[in-house]
Amino acid sequence: MSTQSSAAPASNGITPVQQMVASCSGAILTSLFVTPLDVVKIRLQTQRSPLPKGKCFVYCNGLMDHICVCENGNSRAWYKAPGHFNGTLDAFIKIVRHEGIKALWSGLPPTLVMAVPATVIYFTCYDQLCTVLKARMGEHAQTAPLFAGAIARIGSATVISPLELIRTKLQSQKQSYRELSHCIRLAVETEGWLSLWRGLGPTLLRDVPFSAMYWYNYEMGKSWLCKWYNTRQPTFAITFISGAVSGSIASIVTLPFDVVKTRRQLELGELQAKNLSCKASSTFSVMRKIVEQDGFRGLFAGFLPRLIKVAPACAIMISTYEFGKAFFRKHNQERILRPLQTSNT
At 234, which helix (H) or strand (E)? Predict the structure, then answer.
């Protein structure tokens, strides 16, 4: 990134670096708020059906998905031997009492390692693309968020995918970085560079439509609420409500793809953990199998938990991001006006 581009404010009043800082703050705050909910959810789920050795489950805090590999009834990450919980509130109280309050954020470090770079790439690319597309699309400028959101998600998911594969291998086996690099080099030699992006297809199938719908509905909702409250600049409440509603709509529509992605992610995670090169089932074969076993209702499994998680995560993330951008925009304007006021006096 050049010095000029980071020093001079962009067309939207802030620099790309400031956009990155704002999105980074949003990712950290979202993870801090939502991670305890998923830690409790995982403990409750595994209490009902304990995980056998070598099995995987998906940890998702509404911002990022992670594969967690179980070893001998325990995991090296967020899963611990389940206690005896009688519900969500009881789980919160007992985890804090017996393991300390830090246990509620036991999934935070790996979340931040993956979420922060992905979010920075995603939000910064979206803003830059949206600005360019709006300037070039003329009468169709209101559809720019849809295309910008989809393209930005493809970019961020593609960049992060190899890191997810590496993280899964590190978590599942006690390997040194030298052993890991040898394992990755061997996979590349036998299967090619595309092996580092194994599992990217189902991720994009869910996340790209989600992102396109989310940004389009968010921008439209924000614009409508600004007109309703007769304000030019969206308030924190407006961005929070718009983010929650648009996230809810997108999560409901893309839920079947999320169910399929979770099934494939677990299957691929177990193959990666065992260093197996055989191919997992295709996305559409998994979907067909779900319909055969559980009917079309099976494609909408986990509707309420996903909605409860995604809606607040989207709301917190976008409102924090917009607040950060507004802060930097005001700071830049004051920095420009200060020398002018000094020269006039």
Answer: none
